[in-house]
Amino acid sequence: xxxxxxxxxxxxxxxxxxxxxxxxxxxxxxxxxxxxxxxxxxxxxxxxxxxxxxxxxxxxxxxxxxxxxxxxxxxxxxxxxxxxxxxxxxxxxxxxxxxxxxxxxxxxxxxxxxxxxxxxxxxxxxxxxxxxxxxxxxxxxxxxxxxxxxxxxxxxxxxxxxxxxxxxxxxxxxxxxxxxxxxxxxxxxxxxxxxxxxxxxxxxxxxxxxxxxxxxxxxxxxxxxxxxxxxxxxxxxxxxxxxxxxxxxxxxxxxxxxxxxxxxxxxxxxxxxxxxxxxxxxxxxxxxxxxxxxxxxxxxxxxxxxxxxxxxxxxxxxxxxxxxxxxxxxxxxxxxxxxxxxxxxxxxxxxxxxxxxxxxxxxxxxxxxxxxxxxxxxxxxxxxxxxxxxxxxxxxxxxxxxxxxxxxxxxxxxxxxxxxxxxxxxxxxxxxxxxxxxxxxxxxxxxxxxxxxxxxxxxxxxx
Length: 463
Ligand code: 9WN
Prior knowledge:
Blueprint: H1 8-18, E1 20-21, E2 24-25, E3 34-36, H2 37-50, H3 52-66, E4 76-78, H4 90-93, H5 115-129, H6 131-156, H7 181-184, H8 191-200, H9 204-213, H10 218-223, H11 232-247, H12 252-258, E5 263-264, H13 266-285, H14 291-305, E6 308-309, E7 314-315, E8 317-319, E9 324-326, H15 344-355, H16 390-402, H17 406-423, E10 428-429, E11 436-437, H18 443-452, H19 458-461
Helix pairs in contact: 1-18, 2-3, 2-5, 2-18, 3-5, 3-6, 5-6, 5-13, 6-13, 8-11, 13-14, 16-17
Bound molecules: (2R)-2-(alpha-D-glucopyranosyloxy)-3-hydroxypropanoic acid (9WN).
C-alpha cells in the first residue's frame, strides 16, 4: 500500500473516523473492543490538530467514565460485557470485588501515564482558537489528572522512593518485552493453566477467518493472527496476575508487598515524570500551585538517574524483589530522553547506541526496533520482541529533540514518515523487511503521523 504525501492527512483522518465508536476512538476496528489508556493519549494528540474541541471532549469523557473512586485509571474501558475475539474481556477482571470500581466496565490495571502531557498538547491547539475554551478544558481535566497522579504516588510508591511500581506486564504497554522474562519466570505455570488459556484464547483464531471474509488478503489476515502475539505461556502468566489482583480485591497495599511482579519500569516512570511536568504547567495556567507534585518531580529525577548503567550507556528497569537492574536492552532504555533526564554527554552516547549495530543495525532507515537485535529474545516480527512501533519511536525522537540532538530526531522522523507512506498505518512493522504487521488502520499510528508532519514546536518548548 502506498500513500501519496498529499493524501496523508486525509488518510490518517479516515483511520480515526473509521475506528470511532460510541464517542470514543478505539485502537482498531474489530479486535480491540474498548478504549485503551495510552492509546487514548496518543490519539488525542493527532486529533487535536484536526479538531481540538472534539479531542478535548473525548479525553475528558474517557477519564470521567473510566476513573475509579481512588483516582486509578484503568488501561481499558470496555463497551460491552462480552468481547468476542478479545481476551481478557470485562468478566475476567472481576472488578466488582473492589469498592473503588466505577459504573463502567473496565480492566483492573493501568498503563503508561501519558494523559497529562497529551492534555497539554490539546490545550495548545485549543488556545489557537479560544483562550477561554482552552482554560475551561484545563480547569475540568486538572482535578481528574491530579487524582490519578496522587493515586500513582501514594499506592504505587508507598516508600516514596521516587519510582512507581507496575504490577503487570500489560501496565508497561510492552506486554511480552524481554524485560519481563526473568521476573515472569518466577511464576510457575502448570499444564492445566496452559490448556485453560488455549481455550480462553480460542476466539482469536476466528479473526483470521473473519479477516478473509472481510476481503483482506490471506497474508494480512494471518498477520493479525495468533502467531506474532504473545504465546499461550505468556498469557498463562498474564492471566495468573489478573487473578492475583482480583483475589486481593485490588487492594494496592496488599498487592504491593505480595505480588510476584513488582517492577519499577523505566518507560512508565519517565512518562509519569513528563506528565508531572505537564501537570505543574497546567496548574500554573489555571492559577494553582502544586508543591506536592513539584516535590515528587524532584524525587523522581534523582531516582530515574540511578537507573543509568554507565557500562552500556543505557537506562534499565528495577526489579523491586531483587533490587537489581533488569539489563535487557529495549526501546524503554531510551525513554529518559523524553523526560529530559540524561546529561548531554549521556544523551550523545545513547544516540550512538540507537544508531549502532544493536538497534538501527545495517538498515538505511533510522527506525529503532523494540528490542535490541543482539538480545537472545529478539524477533523481527513478534510483537514487542523486535518490531518497530510508532508511539515508542515517536517518544524517542521527541526525546532526542528535547536533548538538542536534532539530527537523529530528524532522521527518525523522516524514516517513520517514509515507512507510513510506503506501508500504511499498521499496528507495528517487521524490523527487517518493514512489512506492516498486526492490525491495519491502527489509530495511534495514524494519529502520531499528524503530529510528525506538523511544524509545531510544542514538544521542544513546553518544558
Ligand atoms: C493488552 C492497544 C494495546 C496497547 C498495548 C499493546 C496491546 C493489549 C493486547 O494493545 O496490548 O493491553 O491485548 O495485546 O501491547 O501497548 O495499548 O493498542
